[in-house]
Design a protein that fits this description.
Length: 893
């Protein structure tokens, strides 16, 4: 199996400075004429053949400087075009290929979605359109002419529209068929992965944005007809993103027009093609009756993310795909910051950390662990991972923590100035910060090169006589594939002191006990851990205090401390850092769940381990505390998810025991909090039925729905009736779906009729049906397996649409620990069957499903055996794609 290595990077021997494309659209016979202006690169090896990439291409013809090429001068296959002896001065090469977009089920290259033509070129899709140096370090200026029958109403490509009109009907088409064309020019050199073309009979919503230098930008969002009423939130999010990037990062938009197209068949979330973003419609369309508050927040975040790529990704791009985190980590960091500014910063931080723990930590602790900047891959599509994206963003956040807001901004400004228009590396990125801030980041750079989640063990003690608090932090990092031992990392630990009465406690100075140097005064908020065992002494600590460590989750690590339960309770009640208040609650609940699970696995019954009254009191106090944001209180109500508990336990994991432990804790909490849950639920009822999507309104709904859900854990009929009424009285999808989900997950008998009613009401709304599919697939009950099998042949399901597949099978494998990890292996078998079937038409989506096997080695032996059997079955399937083979083989290693 061929692999690509970072160390093998060499530039192409030729540059392609200009690309002129003419695309004559037809479902089964699209012709692409590509005229490339090519020149040997200075210093490139002389007389090297020109080898261009292709994938599944049908070659039609080739001309060199206008003359038809002799057969002996080139070779062309579906995978390559080779010009054997290229001229050693600038020349043009015209290549014609023929495509069948209608038959393109992989959704890479040019394909059709609901009758419209669209493209997806990242990472290696452009080579499915025409032969090219399909790699990010070849930057070219593109002119594109699109031709199609006039029924294909809009003809769109990157850049600015420079010409359009009717044309004579091409040969071979009925004479009375009217054709038209449009010509687009993108003045900014770009790599092929940012090319885009969209054409179809779509509806267009228009708006404008005036940049801070006074340029008037046209904004267009294209959607399917009939969906125009769901675009307002996306448009508003786009305008706020454009303004925010000017205000916070001094980045102004650069073309005259910015377009977004929403399509219903898309492998991922969205794509940042220059000036023409293509979106999975899930991340564009929203109205209160069909989209939840979570959808609203996701849309805002994804619109911002793709827009921010215009600078971090498009204007400055990656030298090679190993540098993916250069654009993705930084852009996720930017979109997280945007959402924090638009909404509540602590609430956003908590939800980002929840996501990191749920997705990245399992990746980092299993067989698929890899560096933020990997050094080898066999299929690049499998590296669009949580490690590259979310951990990549954490690395940027740590840089900001270490350098301060101003230092970080200075480094980024230098990066933008120095590398605009170039394809660069992580080393270039880091050097910008080193130079702007005069710091040495060589040890910090290990975050890009070392996989695995570091473990920190912090031990503190207080010496009243000396008024000193000493803190010792030991770091280690578990082995990961290919990296048995790890170097010592540079880890920022944000901290503060909290007195036992809850008040903040000061100190006079911070001494690095390893070097004996004073490293900070009373305003020091960050400890820089640079040694395996790093000890600090805080002087002038006048009273006993509890260290609040890793505030704001200042590094993506796993922290253990010698803090007692009482210490955590104190932090939970009083820490000035809201993140650590939430974290303290999570720690206590996690500890309880781990102990309870262990007891259950050892044969105890569910009520073996009672929850301490002091914990209940502390939780209740936070829940009822009106000075805290609703959304934050809603987050406090959420118990650690089952997969997080499994990872905390680490080995011999029994998902059934975890589920039982968690359910029994929910029941205990619900019972102990009693009527106060429903009283608060009722008090939060907003009589104003007009819908507002802002963060504060969403927070109120989140808390109210969370209270109802916890109350339902008692499984009382009266509360079930309340939930049913909640469903019927709901004026928006958030409340409606929350009631349906709570009734379903809590296995209330009323759920089934409501599930049917919900389906009947939204049959024609695929994005709502996705919620219906994933809710059923996530239900932990025994019957779910059969229900999922039945749903595979339901008219609302289609294996051809990635959103449907993710909603049903993805949700089953990702959100249903109990049923996916069934002891009888039937859960693994079902998912493996789907992976094998889907692989034939859409390997990328199939490989993403296969990722769900990543934690199999932590399971107890019986389940491990079942998972391994299915992984082997997948790996041994004939004609398996490279995408799925790569994941299955790495899982098995
Ligand atoms: N940069 C985009 C990545 C992406 C993608 C990658 C592989 C295959 C299909 C894809 N669609 C989009 C999305 C982003 O991170 O902004
Ligand atoms: Zn991105």
């Amino acid at each position: 199996n061929s692999v690509v290595r970072l160390e093998d990077y060499i530039p192409t021997p030729y540059s392609i400075d200009h690309v002129s494309l003419t695309v004559r659209l037809d479902p089964l016979e699209t012709f692409v004429t590509s005229t490339l202006s090519i020149a040997p690169r200075e210093g490139g090896s002389e007389e090297a053949a020109l080898t261009l990439d292709g994938d599944d291409l049908v070659f039609v013809s080739a001309r060199l400087n206008g003359d038809v090429l002799e057969d002996s001068a080139y070779s062309a296959s579906d995978e390559q075009f080779i010009l054997k002896n290229p001229p050693q001065e600038a020349f043009t090469l015209e290549l014609v290929t023929k495509l069948a977009p209608q038959k393109n089920t992989q959704l890479m290259g040019l394909y059709r979605s609901n009758g419209a033509y669209c493209t997806q070129c990242e990472a290696e899709g452009f080579r499915r359109i025409t032969y090219f140096y399909d790699r990010p370090d070849v930057l070219s200026v593109y002119d594109v002419r699109i031709e199609a029958p006039v029924e294909v109403k809009y003809l769109l490509a990157n850049g600015n529209l420079v010409d359009s009109g009717t044309m004579s009907t091409p040969e071979g088409y009925p004479e009375d068929q009217l054709w038209h064309y449009a010509c687009w020019q993108d003045p900014f050199p770009k790599p092929s992965y940012l090319f885009a073309l969209v054409a179809g009979d779509l509806a267009r919503v228009e708006d404008r944005f005036v940049t801070r230098s006074g340029r008037d930008i046209t904004l267009h969002i294209y959607v399917e007809h009939g969906k125009e009423d769901r675009v307002d939130h996306a448009m508003d999010s786009l305008k706020r993103s454009m303004k925010w990037d000017e205000d916070v990062f001094d980045r102004e938009y650069d073309l005259d027009i910015f377009m977004i197209v929403a399509v219903s068949d898309f492998n991922m979330g969205a794509m940042e093609n220059k000036g023409l973003n293509v979106f999975n419609d899930k991340y564009v369309l929203a109205k209160p009756e069909t989209a939840t508050d979570t959808d609203y927040a996701l849309i805002e975040g994804v619109i911002a993310h793709e827009y921010f790529h215009n600078w971090t990704g498009n204007r400055i791009t990656c030298r090679d795909w190993f540098q993916l985190c250069l654009k993705e980590g930084l852009t996720v960091f930017r979109d997280q910051e945007f959402s924090s500014d638009m909404r509540s910063r602590p609430v956003k931080r908590i939800s980002d950390v929840q996501q990191l723990r749920a997705r990245q930590f399992p990746e980092d602790s299993g067989p698929l662990a890899h560096q933020v900047r990997p050094e080898v891959y066999s299929e690049i599509n499998n590296f669009y991972t949580s490690t590259v994206y979310e951990k990549g963003a954490e690395v940027c956040r740590m840089l900001e923590t270490l350098l301060g807001k101003e230092g970080f901004k200075a480094g980024l400004d230098l990066y933008f100035d120095r590398f605009d228009g170039q394809a660069v590396t992580i080393e270039d990125f880091i050097a910008s910060f080193e130079e702007a801030c005069s710091v040495d980041l060589s040890q910090f750079a290990l975050w890009y090169r070392q996989a695995g989640t570091p473990d920190l063990v912090a031990t503190y003690s207080y010496d009243a006589a000396r008024e000193q608090l000493s803190l010792s932090i030991e770091q280690s990092c578990p082995p990961t594939p290919g990296q048995p031992t790890k170097k010592v990392m540079h880890i920022p630990v944000r901290f503060g002191l909290v007195g036992r009465d809850g008040s903040p406690v000061g100190f006079t100075s911070v001494i690095d006990a390893n070097s004996g140097q004073e490293i900070g005064k009373s305003d020091c908020t960050v400890l820089e851990i640079r040694e395996r065992q790093h000890k600090f002494i805080l002087t002038g600590v006048s009273k006993d205090a509890i260290p609040s460590l890793l505030r704001g989750f200042s590094a993506p690590v796993h922290l253990r401390t010698n803090l007692t339960h009482d210490d955590y309770l104190c932090l939970m009640g009083h820490d000035t850092d809201p993140f650590n208040r939430w974290e303290a609650a999570q720690f206590i609940l996690m500890d309880h769940l781990v102990q309870q699970t262990r007891a259950l696995q050892a044969g105890a019954n569910t009520s073996s381990h009672a929850l301490d009254d002091s914990i209940l009191e502390a939780l209740k106090a936070c829940l009822m505390d009106d000075s805290l944001e609703h959304a934050f209180r809603a987050q406090l109500l959420q118990l650690p998810i089952e997969s997080d508990v499994g990872r905390e336990i680490g080995h011999d994991v029994d998902p059934d025991a975890i589920h039982r432990a968690r359910e029994s804790l929910r029941h205990a909490l619900s019972t102990a909090l009693g009527d106060s849950l429903i009283d608060l639920y009722k008090a939060l009822d907003d009589k104003d039925t007009s819908f507002r999507s802002d963060a504060s309104s969403a927070g109120r709904r989140a808390l109210r729905n969370g209270l109802l859900d916890l109350a339902l854990a008692r499984k009382e009929e009266a509360i079930s009736d309340l939930a049913v009424a909640h469903y019927h009285n709901a004026t928006n999808m958030t409340d409606r779906f929350a009631a349906l989900a709570s009734l379903t997950r809590n296995e209330m008998p009323a759920a089934n009729a409501l599930l049917d009613a919900f389906h009947a009401e939204f049959t024609n709304d695929a994005l709502v049906i996705d919620k219906w599919l994933s809710l059923q697939a996530s239900a932990p009950q025994e019957e779910t397996l059969q229900r999922v099998k039945d749903l595979l042949s339901h008219p609302s399901f289609s294996m051809n649409n990635p959103n449907r597949v993710r909603s049903l099978i993805g949700a089953f494998a990702m959100n249903n620990q109990v049923q996916f990890n069934r002891k009888d292996g039937e859960g693994f078998k079902l998912v493996a069957d789907i992976i094998i079937e889907l692989d034939k038409s859409n390997p990328q989506t199939a490989a993403r499903l296969a990722n769900n096997f990543r934690s199999w080695k932590a399971l107890e032996p019986d389940r491990q055996g079942q998972a391994k059997k299915e992984l082997l079955r997948i790996a041994n399937t004939e004609s398996l794609s490279k995408d799925v083979a790569d994941i299955a083989n790495r899982c098995l290693q």
